[in-house]
Amino acid sequence: MKTTWTQKRLTRLFERYNRRFWENRLRRVKVRIAHLDDCVGLYSEGTISVDVKKHRSDRDIRSTVLHEMCHAAAAEGKRYHGYKFWAQIEHLLREKAPITVDSPETGGLKILAGVIPKRFPLSRAMMQKAEKRRAAKVERSFRAHPEMPVEIIGRGEILNYFHDVATNDGLTWREALRAAGSDYGIIDVEGKATRQWAASVIAKARKAYRRWRRDFLESKMASALAKSVTGDQAPLLELYRKLGKAKAEALQTRIEAQWNAARVTRARAAESEAPTGKNCVE
Length: 282
Ligand SMILES: [Zn+2]
Prior knowledge:
The protein folds into 2 domains: 7-128, Zincin-like; 155-271. The protein is built from 10 helices and 3 strands. By secondary structure, it is mainly alpha-helical. The chain is elongated. Helix content is 61%, strand content 4%. Strands 1-3-2 form a 3-stranded mixed beta sheet.
């Protein structure tokens, strides 16, 4: 059931939860009703925003407020939904707070098996249930579409994936790991390997990725420099913007050095082939 929610009521809820679960230690934040584009709740710069319309029940709204309060309590830095966040969720589950966890709490990881480490047992159990629901849904759609091709994913397929996103999409290692982790279930909420097997695949990919990424960036820089010679500065500026000045500069220096070395080699080759003065006289 869903009743009417106002900003005042949301604020009271925040205050009540702050007393009950955090001994009033949470810094007072602004709680507001908002229209949010692609989420149901948001914590940002001391404000909790809740898109009330997107919730089906009061229970869902309470769960969202608690979720955002965990962000406020976790002091996460750059990593959202990582271990610091989950320590707060675990605390809430121990206190029997009305919060449920599912894929949104993982920050978008699709495969949920093992994404919560064992040291958060209540959260892990709840997430394993969510994983069962997810897997059952996949099974159902397989049964409904027996013609659907099945692909067995192993080490080789995952390495191929890393290769493709490095060379075609130019993803950084962090982005690639995030994407692969989501699709193949090899990383947990903190970006760490979910199990031994995953760790060895990630280590192997990491090693090769450096080379793939370097090759990708070098070919980008070479073509950007070639274009800038003809007067088109846009690709070069774009690369500088993307990589940052220091990185782009180092890359440019490296490519130019390679070009110079190639020129010197060519010149030397031409020199050695040219008839020497002495031969000409004779
Ligand atoms: Zn969140």
